[in-house]
Amino acid sequence: MTDRDLTILLAEDDEGHAFLVQQNLIDAGLSNRIVHAKDGQEALDYIHCTGTFAGRSCSGPLLLLLDINMPRVDGVEVLRRLKADPKTDQLPVIVLTTTDDPREVRRCYELGCSSYVTKPVDYDRFVEAIRRLGLFLSIVQIPGEIPPM
């Protein structure tokens, strides 16, 4: 598996934040495919190859960058559903959100998120946080798809 095999699914309803995250991950040197889901339901559809993504191949390693406050299905519910399903419970999920409430952080870890990153409100700090996330993603090991037994 090469770094380029990994697809990063960005579930973010704020178009401005989505653009900044994508651009700064690219600026940090990531060459991975980044797919933008505009809400939690769209992220679930992408992961499960349903809805508008029914025709896509559900193979290859995937990492989810997940915002919490989204329409239709919020990020906490997306996380809960993914971790409750044996088909997706090993999917790495990094919560990337402006919510820094310690109770929310604890709840996401209890539900099984891999990491929790708070997006700073200040633009320069936001850009720096995403750049560092990009550097982290460039070295982290992500499990590939495990063939069925």
TrEMBL record:
- UniProt keyword terms in alphabetical order: Phosphoprotein
Classification via InterPro entries:
CheY-like_superfamily, Sig_transdc_resp-reg_receiver, TCS_response_regulator
In which domain of life is the source organism classified? Answer: Bacteria
A Pfam family that this protein carries is Response_reg
Residues annotated as carrying 4-aspartylphosphate in the record are: D67
Is Phosphoprotein a UniProt keyword of this protein? yes
Q: Which GO terms describe its biological process?
A: phosphorelay signal transduction system
Protein's UniProt keywords contain Nucleotide-binding: no
Q: Which PROSITE patterns match?
A: RESPONSE_REGULATORY
Domain Response regulatory residue range list: 7-134
Q: What is this protein called?
A: Response regulatory domain-containing protein
Origin organism is: Gemmata massiliana
- Could you read off the lineage of the organism from its UniProt record? Bacteria, Pseudomonadati, Planctomycetota, Planctomycetia, Gemmatales
